[in-house]
Amino acid sequence: MSAPDYPVRVRLRAGVVGEAKRVVHITMSLPGGGYVALCEVRLAGADAELISDLLGMPCMVCTRILALRSQVADPAELNGPRPEVEP
Ligand SMILES: [Zn+2]
Question: Ligand 1 centre from 6 Cα, in Å?
Answer without folding.
Answer: 16
